[in-house]
Task: structure prediction
Amino acid sequence: MKILITGGCGFVGSHLCDKYVKEGHTVLCLDNFLSGSLANIKHLLDYRNFKLIEGDVRDSELLGRIMRDIEVVFHLAAQIHVDRSYVEPELTWDVNVMGTQKILEAARFYDVKRVIHASSSEVYGTAQYVPMDEKHPLDAAHPYGASKVAADRLCWSYQKTYGMDIAIMRPFNIFGERQRDVGYGAVISLFTRRVLNNVSPIIYGNGEQRREYTYIDDIVRAYDLVMKHKEPINEPVNFGTGKDVSILELADTIIALCGKDLKPYHAEPRMAEVDRLCADASKAKALLGWEAKTRLGEGLIKFI
Result:
């Protein structure tokens, strides 16, 4: 099978590249290195069935050249950081929405069999009830979340208008090997890096915000099940553990697992902070037989 993975040098994308290259598929990895890293896929460069393409999903001409004969597109390319969206909302919208539209148009033109779109739990905003199923209102409060809502609904519209096979995945927070721990990196990687270097983790606000975290191996398995599903999945699907934890509890757990004697430092709350995210992933189990297998503590030990 010939597979295109956009954002393939990123955290999740590079794990998908690993899986499908080693399974013998032909994999095209497209990345502009906005947040991806060459180090994540450097070990694949000598594989004959792997091709790295440095480029942007907003480049229609480039997509026209590489989409031909592609059977499946994993669309993960995005400006993925909430904090960055506060200071660069236009870039966030352009990459996440217009980039998605360019991918969908190219896939439509070349009759790609299936597009798998990486949406996000951030489309929901703060939980209005828990656990949060796919019928939860889309109430994103920050520019990143709003861009993911628009891209999510754009995929839905292409599915309905053109009859395309587009799977919309809404994973909740993901963590694991290769996650960025600098700049706009995710909280587990940032906390872990600081604690391992004997520096207190920074918590914005009181730390009572609650999130859930799914280990990367479980999410890769979710993507694979979606790709191999015989019938089109014509509805969004959540992927998560359904077990949330406060940011303060998370920091304390990482400090304890690292064997350090530190206390978190509390900074001013962030703008438009989501208070709680907690998934109802029962649809994923019913449709795909998927459920998270790695417990948070087990995943943290592996990551540390």
Summary: The CA atoms of residues 68 and 190 lie 39 Å apart. The chain has ten helices and 13 strands. The first strand starts at residue 2 and ends at 6.
